[in-house]
Design brief:
The complex is a heterodimer of chains A (about 400) and B (about 350). Chain A is α+β, with helices and mostly antiparallel strands and about 400 residues long. Chain A contains 12 helices and 22 strands. Chain A is about 30% helix and about 20% strand. In chain A, strand 7 and strand 8 form a beta hairpin. In chain B, strand 2 and strand 3 form a beta hairpin. In chain B, helix 3 packs across helix 4, helix 4 crosses helix 10 and helix 13 crosses helix 14. The chains are: A alpha+beta (about 400), B mainly alpha (about 350).
């Protein structure tokens, strides 16, 4: 068992740093046993929720079990074999490769890579949202005290061994949705990828996975995928591409009458700066407006352009895109960090993860001990938890226990 | 025939054009049908072609310039035949000289020669001249496996599929050629006329090197062998191995890597030239000593290099002296080859100072 670094630990602990909450749990740990049962029931009754493409025997599967063990390099002949495995082991997380292999069970270098969809990962954490600073929680690894808001030291014992618990809000989801739209627009405009080839999934916790299923890109190397990621992030963009260069005084000056095909990054940057380009040429009108902008912004063109590039760039994780051997959370499976499903977003605008990614069923009530005062909104209902005993539906309890902010009674 | 070379091109255009592009399969077919053999090169009938190839190579290697002229005063068929044979003789000479730096310098200047022909053909062709564009398309499609299309909405822009573009090594070698610095639209990379020619030169450079390296020859004709020995001797006299630094001087690993690249005849990217130039200036090297090193670069031009070094030293232009870039900058430019001795330094010159202090 091997390289867990290429697991898609999407929300925390990338590069294999993520460990199961129950890794060192006693065999009779109530939370672990209860969740294992809830997950098993879900997979037993709702296995059809799991999304599988064709040729599943050519994909690699990986599982994280509730005891923390990881099983990789697994392959199944058909769906039935896979379902039987899932129900038997009730894994906390299920992953599968976007890549197809001649021999998916072999070690990475022996697998015989056939090809892979293009995949992009947008993680809420990478957006560094202001709201997240106030609504995320911090768990102290020493005294288990949970604080609201991001703090440098535990309020209970002053320890710095803290773990952030993502509690995304609707504003976080809105920002993520905006990022997904930005990415898909570039994919369509610049890369010529049609909407029908772009599949968007909520990751099950605090992010989105965007899959591009297009035969033109299926067989491309990791190096080319890396170039795609660099392009989408605008990393290393040279201002000279805009037709603007430093004069002898070091001032960025437009190259008058320069003809450059006005598409891609150039069009996007000029559009966002409200600088008009006619017939692909830097003309008098452009120069006039540019000079006016310079006067208004204290000649700081470099900063203005850099800010625009940053705002326009896709906030993807480049390592995910370039890693052709990575295994991803399986769509339709439960994310053990939230108890929510990795769900397909048919319509991004109307998709609400707190409704559409809740697992089917689980409406019967259970009792939990909440560790704090918190409001949770799921399936369109709001639940106000008080510290101590609370009675809530199973799907809410799964969220609370997975987040580590409450214990099953 | 004891010499095997792969030509898998069929391009249909005028004979005269073929003389300018002797690496194409169609041009090669001109000598195949007359049953040309390498052994024939020992005959006096070919001496004038050998002389022409030798002169061209000597100009490339020892003067860094190209004054080669195609002799158009013959029949079309003879012109093409002679140009193809001269091209083959050149490859043979370079192969038998067998010095990496020579191969690279030859490949660079030879590809620049073909680039000039292409630019001239593209410039003299009128907007609707499809023949010359056809040459360009066919060269790319057949020789470099890249399909080029003309953008119909805006004059003089070409487009290549994104994934095809990324098959060209230059897309990963130089910043301005990275995908992020290209115009992308609807699945295509857009290039103007100058850029498409630059791409052509770069690919042709790699192709010529590849051809020379993969040439399989049982016996090199004696005439060719004698000339190659003489060129090799002259080259080695002009380019003794790069002096080892004095025992108490430390060469920073990034600088050592540049020295190694120069020894191999690699063409340095601009940031590497800047790093080397500023480092040599800092090390109090004279202009002549610096030029001695830079002249090993395949595209060396004494006038330009002299000006640039003086500019870096603050003796020309804005009188601003350029300092050796920081390790951080060097890392960003992918020029860092950090080893244990680099621990705790933020600029390669600290290593030189550190050692001098001992």
């Amino acid at each position: 068992m091997s390289d867990t670094s290429s697991f898609d630990f999407n929300e925390s602990g990338k590069n294999g740093k993520h460990t199961s909450k129950y890794q060192n749990a006693e065999p009779d740990d109530k939370n672990k046993n209860w969740l294992e049962g809830v997950f098993r029931r879900y997979y037993f009754y709702h296995y059809s929720q799991i999304e599988l493409g064709e040729l599943i025997n050519e994909h690699e599967f990986g599982f994280r079990l509730f005891d923390g063990k990881i099983r990789r390099h697994l392959a199944f002949n058909d769906k039935k074999e896979l379902y039987a495995y899932i129900i038997k082991f009730s894994p906390s997380d299920i992953f599968y490769s976007s890549s197809r292999y001649q021999n998916p069970k072999a070690e990475i270098d022996q697998k015989g890579w056939i090809g892979s969809d293009l995949i992009f990962d947008i993680d809420g954490k990478d957006l560094h949202l202001e709201c997240a600073q106030s609504h995320n929680l911090v768990l102290c690894r020493d005294c288990s005290f949970i604080s609201k808001g991001i703090i440098p030291k535990c309020a209970g014992c002053n320890s710095t061994r803290l773990q952030i618990i993502d509690m995304p809000c609707s504003r976080c989801i809105k920002s993520l949705t905006g990022e997904v739209k930005k990415l898909t627009e570039i994919l369509k405009d610049d890369f010529g990828i049609v909407s029908e080839s772009i599949f968007i999934y909520f990751s099950g916790n605090n992010g989105y996975h965007i899959h591009v299923v297009d035969k033109n890109f299926y067989g491309i190397s990791a190096q080319k995928r890396s170039a795609f990621a660099q392009y989408l992030m605008g990393k290393g963009y040279l201002i000279e591409n805009l037709g603007i260069r430093k004069n002898t005084d070091g001032v960025l000056t437009p190259m008058h009458n320069k003809v450059q095909y006005n598409q891609g990054w150039r069009r996007r940057i000029f559009d966002s700066m409200h600088l008009p380009i006619q017939n692909h040429r830097i003309d008098d009108k452009f120069v006039k407006k540019y000079v006016r902008m310079l006067d208004a912004k204290n000649n700081n063109t470099n900063d203005i352009i850099s800010t625009n590039i940053f705002d326009l760039s896709a906030k993807i994780d480049p390592n995910v895109t370039m890693d052709i051997h990575r295994i991803f959370r399986l769509a339709g499976s439960i994310n053990s960090k939230s108890g929510l499903i990795k769900a397909f977003c048919k319509d991004l605008d109307s998709f609400n993860p707190f409704v559409d990614a809740c697992f089917v069923g689980g409406d019967s009530n259970v009792k939990i001990d909440s560790k704090l005062n918190i409001k949770i909104s799921l399936k369109g209902k709001q639940f106000s938890l008080k510290p101590g005993a609370n009675t809530i539906p199973e799907y809410v309890a799964a969220y609370v226990v997975c987040k580590g902010i409450g214990d099953i009674q | 025939m004891c010499y095997v070379i792969k030509y898998n091109l069929v391009v249909r255009f005028g004979n005269k054009d073929l003389a300018k592009y002797p690496f194409l399969k169609e041009a090669f077919s001109y000598i195949v049908k007359y049953d040309f053999k390498l052994e024939d090169l020992d005959s006096r009938d070919y001496q004038h072609l050998i002389d022409k190839a030798t002169k061209k190579i000597e100009q490339y290697l020892f003067f860094g310039k190209c004054e080669y002229q195609i002799n158009y005063s013959k029949t079309h068929e003879t012109i093409v035949q002679e140009e193809v044979i001269i091209f083959i003789i050149s490859l043979l000479l370079i192969k038998s000289i067998s010095i990496q730096a020579v191969t690279k310098k030859f490949a660079l200047l030879e590809s620049m020669r073909f680039e000039k022909y292409l630019i001239s053909d593209l410039n003299t062709a009128n907007q609707d001249d499809k023949t010359i564009k056809l040459i360009l398309y066919k060269i790319f499609e057949d020789l470099f496996s890249t399909k080029i299309l003309l953008e119909v909405d805006i004059y003089n822009f070409y487009k290549i599929r994104i994934t095809d573009y990324l098959d060209h090594p230059i897309a990963f070698q130089e910043k301005e050629w990275n995908l992020v610095n290209r115009t992308l639209h609807n699945g295509f990379v857009y290039l103007d006329g100058t850029e498409i020619v630059r791409l052509f030169r770069n690919e042709l450079y790699l192709l010529i090197i590849d051809r020379i390296q993969k040439m399989s020859i049982d016996r090199i004709p004696d005439t060719i062998m004698a000339i190659s020995k003489s060129i090799k001797k002259r080259w080695e006299q002009m380019h003794p191995s790069i002096n080892e630094p004095a025992y108490n001087v430390v060469t920073p690993p990034c600088i050592q890597h540049i020295y190694d690249q120069i020894s191999k005849g690699e063409n340095l990217p601009h940031p590497a030239r800047l790093l080397l130039g500023t480092f040599l200036i800092y090390s109090n090297k004279t202009l002549e000593e610096m030029l001695d090193l830079f002249k090993r670069l395949p595209d060396f031009d004494e006038k330009i290099t002299r000006y640039q070094l003086e500019h870096l030293a603050g003796k020309k232009g804005s009188s601003k002296r350029y300092y050796v870039p920081s390790c951080e900058k060097i890392k960003l430019e992918n020029l860092c080859y950090e080893t244990r001795i680099c621990q705790g330094i933020s600029n390669p010159i600290q290593l030189v100072r550190k050692k001098s202090d001992i």
